[in-house]
Amino acid sequence: MKVTNAEIVISAVSKKQYPNDRLPEIALAGRSNVGKSSFINKLINRKNLARTSSKPGKTQTLNFYKINNAFYFVDVPGYGYAKVSKKEREKWGGMMEEYLQYRDTLKAVLLITDLRHEPTRDDVQMYEFLKYFELPVIVIATKLDKIPKSKRANHLKRTIQTLHIESNDLVLPFSAETGEGKEEAWGVLQSFL
Ligand code: GDP
């Protein structure tokens, strides 16, 4: 897809702030620092539209990016920060549930993982959480450039096995550094839009 227009429309903290123009939405989830912003920026050819790393203590928001006036990428707050308090974790959970459970314009969720490492317990929980809401999930296994070609297949297999990927869901290797996987990601996304 050729992206000609990309803009942040709102950083929402509650439902009443979500856009109401009924455009389809693709959400992005992932551990803090996994490479979520780099993924978005690479896909839409922007250096810095999606801001990197929401650190603990910062307001956690759902960021709605309108793309080509046709759909939204919805960047949900990163998870898995050890330092986050129980109260903050609960707030995050409530916000996620409010969005994921009832948003009927939400078409699919991209779960970003780090292909170098085995998915963490938080990644597994996130995948289960998304499947609980019966959402289609596409796992984007990023930082592909960091893995030698001879080892890539094994890393992919480990990701699929550890997350217990359901047969309808896809795992796509990706690199924000080289752009590998970008066309494939757009291809899959377009099938949901
Ligand atoms: P976020 O917190 O999930 O939004 O993570 P960022 O997009 O800020 O990325 C975290 C760090 O990983 C940054 O230093 C990025 O440059 C780096 N990074 C992200 N994607 C890739 C990738 O595909 N390859 C490599 N080598 N580094 C990456």
From TrEMBL:
NCBIfam families: GTPase_YsxC (TIGR03598), small_GTP (TIGR00231)
HAMAP family, sorted: GTPase_EngB
Keyword Cell division appears in the UniProt entry: yes
Pfam families attached to this UniProt entry: MMR_HSR1 (PF01926)
Origin species: Lentibacillus populi
Sorted UniProt keywords: Cell cycle, Cell division, GTP-binding, Magnesium, Metal-binding, Nucleotide-binding, Septation
UniProt key word Lyase: no
Function: Necessary for normal cell division and for the maintenance of normal septation.
Family indicated by similarity: Belongs to the TRAFAC class TrmE-Era-EngA-EngB-Septin-like GTPase superfamily. EngB GTPase family.
Protein name: Probable GTP-binding protein EngB
